[in-house]
C-alpha cells in the first residue's frame, strides 16, 4: 500500500501544471518508456531499459567513458588472464557493496552470470559467445577466496574479447542476498527484478510504474562514488511534441527522442541546449524468412530489389533532417572495421527489373513498426517508395513493447528495427546479423536466416588473434551481407538530446548503455 501511495504521489506531481523549475536536487527526464519489457539486467534488451540499467547496476569491468575501446575496472580491482586455459582470475574490490548494504562477494558474481545464462532471455546470446550454456555454466565459475573468483570459458575467444563481453549490461552484478528470497518458481527473482533493483549503481529504484515513470534515488554508497543529484524521474511522454513543450517551459531538464521538427524548433531557443552525440544506433529493415505465411520473404530477389526501393536521401535529409546519415553495412561508423561505402540508392526502375527477372508479381508484405519516430517515419517513406517499384507494404504500427514481443515470437513478416552493439567489438554485430545456431535469439535467429558458411566466418573472425586480419574478415562479411541478406541497412543515428541550460555534466557515448547521470548537476 505504501508503494502504491508513493507512486500515486510521484505521478500526480509529474502531472501537475507548469512549474517555475524542476526541484534543484532532482533531474526530470522526458522520453518514451513504452518499449520497456523488463528492468532485470538479465532480460533488459530494449533501448529505454538499456539506457536505465547502468544507473542501477555495475559490471566487473565497463568501457571507459572517454575511450570505449579501453576496458576500465569497476567492481573488479584487478584481473589476470590466461589465454591458453581460457581463464580470467578476478579480484573484487574488497570494500564494494550493494545499495542494500550487502557486501559484494564472489557468490554474487557467480549467481549473476548463472541466472543470466539459465534464464536464457533475449540478451543471453551475448554470454553464449563464451560457450556458456545452462548445462555447463556451473562448472565455468569458481570461488577462489572471499574476494577472488575464476571465470573459465569453452569457446575459442581471446581474453580481450571475453572482457568486452563481460562489460555488457547482461553481465551486471546483482545482489544475491536481496534477489534470492524474491525468487518464485525457479525464476531467479526475474519477476521481482522486472520492477525492482538490486545493484550497486549510482542510483537505486524507488518506483517503476510501466508506461508512466521510473523514479530513482541516489545510492550514496556506490563503489564509484555518490551521484551529484539526489533523484532522477524518468517520465514516459509518448508524444514528441509534448516532450518539446516540457523541456521548453522548464518542466523537464532533459528530453530524449525528439523528432527532427521538434529539434529544429528548439535550436537557438533561450534556456535550452541541443547536444549532438555520435551514436552506434542503426535502423534496418528485416525480412522474416522463417515466416511460412509469406514465402516471398525467402526470395533473395526481393531482398535485392528492396535495396533499390529505399529512398535513403529522402529519409535522412528530408524527413529526419540530418539526425541520421545513410549507412548501409552492419558495423556502425565509429567501430573498428566498419565499412563506409553506400552502394545503393533509390532506383525503382532497377528494382522492377530485378523482380520481373525473378518472376515476382503482386509482391506484398506486412511491416511491423514502432509507432514513434524515427521508425514510423521510415516505414511510411518505405510504404510510398516501395509502391513505386510495385511492392505493396501494409503497415502494422504498435507500441514498442508489442513490436518487440511479435519479433521475438517470430510472428512478423518484416519489421523496421533498431540495433546498437552490445559491446565495443565487431563481433557484437557480426554475431547478431550473421550467426544463427538455431537456438539463440540473434537478429538472424529471430528472422529465420541460417547460412552455415557465415557461421564459420563469424567464428573464424572471433578466433583470429591478429587484429588487422580480424578487421579484414569483418569487412568481407559486411560486403557479403550487403550483397545478399534479408536485411536492408538504412541509416545510422546522431543522438540529439535537449537539456536545460543549467544542466551540466551529462555524458553519453556511442552505445545505448553509455548513458551516465551520476555527474550531472543543476
Account of the 3D structure:
The protein is built from 19 helices and 19 strands. The chain has about 525 residues and is α+β, with helices and mostly antiparallel strands. It folds into 2 domains: about 1-10 and about 20-225 and about 510-515, D-Maltodextrin-Binding Protein, domain 2; about 280-495, Dipeptide-binding Protein, Domain 3 (Dipeptide-binding Protein, domain 3, Roll). Strands 1, 8, 9, 10, 11, 12, 13, 14, 15, 16 and 17 form an 11-stranded mixed sheet that branches. Strand 8 and strand 9 form a beta hairpin. Helix 11 (about 300-305) runs antiparallel to helix 13 (about 350-355) and helix 18 (about 450-465) runs antiparallel to helix 19. The model has no long low-confidence stretch (mean pLDDT about 95).
Task: Give a short overview.
The chain is α+β, with helices and mostly antiparallel strands.
Secondary structure blueprint with pairings:
Blueprint: H1 2-14, E1 26-31, H2 47-56, E2 61-63, E3 71-73, E4 76-82, E5 87-92, H3 106-119, H4 125-128, H5 137-140, E6 141-145, E7 148-152, H6 159-165, H7 176-179, H8 190-193, E8 203-209, E9 213-218, E10 231-236, H9 240-249, E11 254-255, H10 260-266, E12 272-287, H11 300-307, H12 312-319, E13 324-326, H13 348-357, E14 364-370, H14 375-387, E15 392-398, H15 400-408, E16 414-419, H16 426-433, H17 443-446, H18 452-463, H19 467-483, E17 487-500, E18 507-508, E19 515-516
Parallel strand pairs: 1-10, 1-11, 14-15, 14-16
Antiparallel strand pairs: 2-3, 4-5, 5-7, 6-7, 8-9, 9-10, 11-17, 12-16, 12-17, 13-17, 18-19
Helix pairs in contact: 11-13, 18-19
